[in-house]
Amino acid sequence: MQLLFLGTGAGMPSKQRNTTATVLKLLDERGTFWMFDCGEATQHQILHTTLKPRKLEKLFITHLHGDHIYGLPGLLGSRSFLGGDEPLTIYGPVGIKAWIELTLATSKTHIKYELNIIEIEEGTIFEDDQFIVEAKLLEHVIPCFGYKVMQKPLPPELLIEKTDAFGVPRGPLLRQLKEGHDVELADGRIVKSFEVTGKPKEGFQVTILGDTKFCKNSILLSKGSDIVVHEGTFDLETAELAGLYGHSTIVDAANVCKEADAKHLIVNHISARFMPSDIKEMITQVAHYDFPIYIAHDFTEYDWANGQLRKIPSE
User: Fold this and answer.
1) How far apart are CA 90 and CA 35, in angstroms?
2) pLDDT in tens, 215-251
């Protein structure tokens, strides 16, 4: 799994940051990617990446402020023009369905794939054999959701040296053992799955929060997460503005991660008032926390593998 930040700014685009769009790349897990929010010019940002819009499977909208949704109509149209024919599901607050349908109808944008728009409430909003997605309401100036993506436990590793010791031939029997089934060999011996497999591996948990003040639901949704993506629109010196506009400081984000006992924090949705030179000062405000804290920039990408988070070097 990889996390790619297409836009990390707040309110309006700046020379340093585009408006919000975060991609959860699940190319190894399911051959697709999911997106969280779709600010203005998101499809332009995609042009600078290897992402293919036809591979977009799910799109989660946190709330209906323009810097989180104004990129939707263009992306939806382009996905069709570029040959995307697989269904796309959009999840979001009440109002997202009417807004998308009116925008597409008024602009006479015709899409050739099945578009499903689900207006959500709190709770489990998606589940299949690989993933569960939960949503909770946060505390912003309009209804705003946070999302937690939980990968279900992975199949245990098949220990080939043990299957060889039992004399299991290469082929379909190995798959059955890996999937947890006992098998019978040609000589009548039974090989049990638990004898030739390791322990099941825990899947990853990623929490991606929309705009919010410090609140209980942010902590509940982030509990035990491997990665928390939390807005940090303001810093300590501008904390009063954060409270006024329903946003968080970088310290608020760190406190959520600490209270939730999460492992890594990535801060995004940075106000345009902060220049690159200001980011170093923001980092010093959270330097004393005992877990890794990163500030995302446009096109920053992180890889999660074997329980480790690694920032992918930019080319």
Assistant:
1) 9
2) 999 999 999 999 999 999 999 999 999 989 999 999 9
- List active site positions: 67
Q: In the chain, which residue ranges form alpha helices assigned H by DSSP?
A: 27-30, 42-46, 66-69, 72-81, 96-106, 160-166, 172-178, 216-222, 239-244, 250-259, 276-284
Query: What are the residues facing 32 on neighbouring strands?
Result: 26
Rounded CA-CA distance 101/291 in Å is 43
CA distance 104 to 98: 10
Please tell me the predicted confidence (pLDDT) of residue 103. 97
* Helix and strand totals (H; E) in the chain: 11, 17
Q: What's the CA gap between 277 and 261, in Å, rounded?
A: 30
Q: Which residues of 120-148 are buried (b: 16+ CB within 10 A; e: fewer)?
A: beeeebbeeeebbbbbbbbebeeebbbbb
Q: What is the four-CA torsion angle of 65, 85, 23, 136, rounded to 10 degrees?
A: 50
The token pair that represents 94 in the structure block:
């009440």
- pLDDT tens readout for residues 130-151: 999 999 999 999 999 999 999 9
Report phi then psi at 106, rounded to 5: -65, -40
Q: Which residue has the tokens 């340093």?
A: 16
Backbone phi, then psi, for 146, in 5-degree steps? -110, 155
- Convert the pLDDT of each residue in 25-50 to its tens digit: 999 999 999 999 999 999 999 999 99
For residues 232 and 195, is the Cβ–Cβ distance under 8 A? no
- Single-letter amino acid code for the residue at 102: L
Hey, what's the torsion of the CAs at 39, 131, 136, 140, to 10 degrees?
-20
C-alpha R_g of the chain: 22
